[in-house]
Amino acid sequence: MTYVAPVSEQRFVLEHVVKIGELAATEKYAAASSDMVDAILEGAGQFAEGEYAPLNRAGDEIGARWKDGVVTMPEGFRAAYQAFVEGGWGSINGPEEFGGQGLPYALATVIMEDLGSANMGFSLCNMLTPGAIEALIAYGTDEQKAAWLPRLITGEWTGTMNLTESQAGSDVGALRTTATPLGDGGFKIKGTKIFITFGEHDLADNIVHLVLARTPGAPAGTRGISLFLVPKFRLDAEGRPAGTNDVRCVSIEHKLGIHASPTCVLSFGDNDDCIGHLIGPEFGGIAAMFVMMNNARLNVGLQGVQIGERATQQAVSYARERIQSARAGGPSRDPVAIIEHPDVRRMLLRMKALTQGARALIYYAAGQVDRAHLGDEAAKNRLDLLTPLAKAYGTDIGCEVASLGVQVHGGMGFIEETGAAQYYRDIRIAPIYEGTNGIQAADLVGRKLGLDGGATLAALIADMRAEAHDAGLRALIDSVEAVAGHLASASADDRLAASYPFLTMLSVAVAGWLMERQGRAASGAEGDPAFLAMKQAAVRFYVDQLVPEAQGLFASAMAGADLLYAVDEAAFAA
Amino acid sequence: MTYVAPVSEQRFVLEHVVKIGELAATEKYAAASSDMVDAILEGAGQFAEGEYAPLNRAGDEIGARWKDGVVTMPEGFRAAYQAFVEGGWGSINGPEEFGGQGLPYALATVIMEDLGSANMGFSLCNMLTPGAIEALIAYGTDEQKAAWLPRLITGEWTGTMNLTESQAGSDVGALRTTATPLGDGGFKIKGTKIFITFGEHDLADNIVHLVLARTPGAPAGTRGISLFLVPKFRLDAEGRPAGTNDVRCVSIEHKLGIHASPTCVLSFGDNDDCIGHLIGPEFGGIAAMFVMMNNARLNVGLQGVQIGERATQQAVSYARERIQSARAGGPSRDPVAIIEHPDVRRMLLRMKALTQGARALIYYAAGQVDRAHLGDEAAKNRLDLLTPLAKAYGTDIGCEVASLGVQVHGGMGFIEETGAAQYYRDIRIAPIYEGTNGIQAADLVGRKLGLDGGATLAALIADMRAEAHDAGLRALIDSVEAVAGHLASASADDRLAASYPFLTMLSVAVAGWLMERQGRAASGAEGDPAFLAMKQAAVRFYVDQLVPEAQGLFASAMAGADLLYAVDEAAFAA
């Protein structure tokens, strides 16, 4: 089956989790009226359903193809991308002075969700441009902003993030690409980057690479990194793409999934003629990288929701159509649709609850982006705290839901033509890129727990406690607080050993809090009775069953690192 | 890296979990001396490493190919299969009167583990023949046994299981293939079967299809099903393959994984000239099917261990070689091998513990097969109780460990050339085939809890309690007993709603019990110190961290089915 945008759900979460009405009451976001929100949700859903979803199988089966440095997308992709640009779907939250619509980021999140549910691989092209925009807004000169922002905001040009080199993955500071000043303000860029998403393609008229590199004599490690803007085509005097810039796509990867997304090896300056422009201060690259990265991390977490939604829709559809076996203990011996069998229904409700829980967490974080833009410093800190949760928990549940989707299909789930397996393959990258989930967990226990002297976490816990009713949920919040208290004085090893289970516990507590709130809101609310009943069932499943599961991680979170080092690394191979 | 058979581990589990010494003390299994066991473990490991493992990538990349009804395996497969036959690796536990070696089934399990770790897709060819052998031993006439068993036992001919039809998957009773008596004892077979593993190939001189079909006027459902032996080639007067038998491979599936295993659509009797032989009594098909199926279910559970072992070996190897980032909190700023980082080490120890836990459970079940063959009725019942656990838990952890293996590789895990992704794709079929894991859970709460009036489960719980020391493990055993007590008087819906979490809880309790036993045995044992230290670390991780996780499923197991049916099935699409 094809994708149907979950508009009721998106609207409900915007209202009760993001509290978009609060945003619309501000001068900055006054345009985000209820009617405008409805129009965007309906329009974005229809666009994704009509333009992106029909290309999802071709994206997987044909995929991006490389030949002699040129990357060709399957038929239909360029037209669909042009429709995205013409529809203005990329400019929703861009600043109005550069042609954007100035609407809340939370709405851009909904659009991104629709695009990725429809076609995850393709949507990566849309996903990385906003990071380049954010970095330029934060660090570009007025001239740079004027030259690059308008066409990035429309999507006429796309953006990339160039961090990774073969020896520098999670350890970005180990990168070796060089940037040599030319004396006229420009830099000559030389080096090879790997794993560059949409590093080359035929969808847009220019590609704006944001490249981390080292200037001559730069300090070692992350402190010596600077950020450069390196276009595929240089601009002429009128600001139009003109001459090429000595950036070559050497190859693309043969991957498990997201075949529609060309993952490029890019070689800069093979002919010593690659020009880059410094963005922000020299050695300010790592800070600029986090601006790009934090945006991308929320969006990668959102990919878990995208695939969770798509896989759930397909599994529900299959389970309602596939007739097999009578219902045990039922009055009739006639075979029924498999959705009638308790364990299939359990899987489907679990898929619903996980997807809704992660959506609540990520939309909530998106709402903090908007509040931070309004100058709310506490919201900025809360966003920073929630970003690793959004990325890691969102992608973890995306993988689980996709796997459950395969399982609901039985043997047909393993046959590629059915499509369930594609979601399972596509989403598996999400716990890895933009900082592995292990890196997210390290970020949580390393940087984020201590934000504002611990007050950021304390405020979140206080907010959760003030609203949470369920005894199990309150117990999980208590456990989270106890683990955090324990970790505050723990060794680095012990903190890191606890990091992943703690991240999951905290994520489930936050999602459980936001789900329980939605359950209360759904009780007695006006709207589609089927949607509201399903919402309440998903909330109860989340709170009654998923919250206690997360409580089961308490022992791991408190276990410490001693056991991990009880044997020598060589013994792991024994 | 290539596969290295975990001989120390296999030997240790045979000694302390299977207690193979007890088997060798019987007259029937006297040949299973310690020296013989060592020779088999070493030899099987070397065979799998040398013949099967080198073909694993080609099996995935080239795979089985179909053209005009003929299935061709990649180069090297036929020679490796012939080496398997010549080495006598298929005949270890076959009855001596038909050319087998009469050794314990537990040893055949070790051989199967090695073959599947080396090359899971290929090893399916080896995996299904034993089911055909078991069915013939149980139900064949003396003439049938003499005609078919010897060459199935050597592996010169291979066996298949033909159950599924497009409308009859989990609901086997819905099948429509017909068998019409010819008057001379033979039957004409007509129908189409799908998802037939190694239903056609070029590895062996004949293929022995065991086919479920209906005779004229047979009752509806499973009670009207009979089992037929349908060879690819009929035998001449000397018992050699001669004329073809109107069985045609119509197509093979395009699958997520196990590309080396041709999954066939088989058409029987297109030209009205397909002859089958009744195996066992008319309408005795479903009982015969369970004989084949139960064997296959243990072996499918074992596939989780196979891939768990292989994925863990590769992840450990990568983590010891890949240098990235300094260790947080460590004295040096030099980058280290990623196995030094706590969260990577946590993943690797988790992979070790899960794989060892599932191996203990499945080898233990295999030991019950041998005790049942010795006439121990309680062992037969315990085997029946453990079979759904072995199948479902083994395959679930196989998928989890393969996913962790991808994660340890970071971005490289998503690149197909690395190989980690193949394990992730290959193992995903295992929770589905030979009865989905949901069917296993239904079997557990439907048939198995009540075995011997509940005494089978009670005896298992008593054995676990008599030996378990750890407080968390004892608490899990208590919880398992409480859930089982609750389910005994629960409605069919409530039992089925609880079935999956309960299956996981009981599996972890059994594996935890057997792991804890191994931990005690390893303390002070003689042998490789690295292996013994690693065993103790894996045991502690299992007991201290995985057991409490399973305890977290208690709420789900007690929740009942009401919530699942709180909303109409149509609301799942709302």
From TrEMBL, chains A, B:
Q: Which residues form the Acetyl-CoA dehydrogenase-like C-terminal domain?
A: 465-567
The protein's required cofactor(s) are namely:
FAD
Q: Which UniProt keywords apply?
A: FAD, Flavoprotein, Oxidoreductase
Catalytic reaction equation(s): 3-(methylsulfanyl)propanoyl-CoA + oxidized [electron-transfer flavoprotein] + H(+) = 3-(methylsulfanyl)acryloyl-CoA + reduced [electron-transfer flavoprotein]
Which positions fall inside the Acyl-CoA oxidase/dehydrogenase middle domain? Answer: 161-269
Against InterPro entries, the record matches this protein to: Acyl-CoA_dh-like_C_dom, Acyl-CoA_Oxase/DH_mid-dom, Acyl-CoA_Oxase/DH_mid-dom_sf, AcylCo_DH-like_C, AcylCo_DH/oxidase_C, AcylCoA_DH/ox_N, AcylCoA_DH/ox_N_sf, AcylCoA_DH/oxidase_NM_dom_sf
Q: Where is the Acyl-CoA dehydrogenase/oxidase N-terminal domain?
A: 39-156
Question: What are the Acyl-CoA dehydrogenase/oxidase C-terminal domain coordinates in residue numbering?
Answer: 285-444
E.C. number, please? 1.3.99.41
- MF (Gene Ontology): flavin adenine dinucleotide binding; oxidoreductase activity, acting on the CH-CH group of donors
The family classification in the record reads: Belongs to the acyl-CoA dehydrogenase family.
Protein role: Involved in the assimilation of dimethylsulphoniopropionate (DMSP), an important compound in the fixation of carbon in marine phytoplankton, by mediating the conversion of 3-(methylthio)propanoyl-CoA (MMPA-CoA) to 3-(methylthio)acryloyl-CoA (MTA-CoA).
Put simply, this protein is called 3-methylmercaptopropionyl-CoA dehydrogenase
Origin organism is Sphingomonas cavernae
Q: What is the lineage of its organism?
A: Bacteria, Pseudomonadati, Pseudomonadota, Alphaproteobacteria, Sphingomonadales
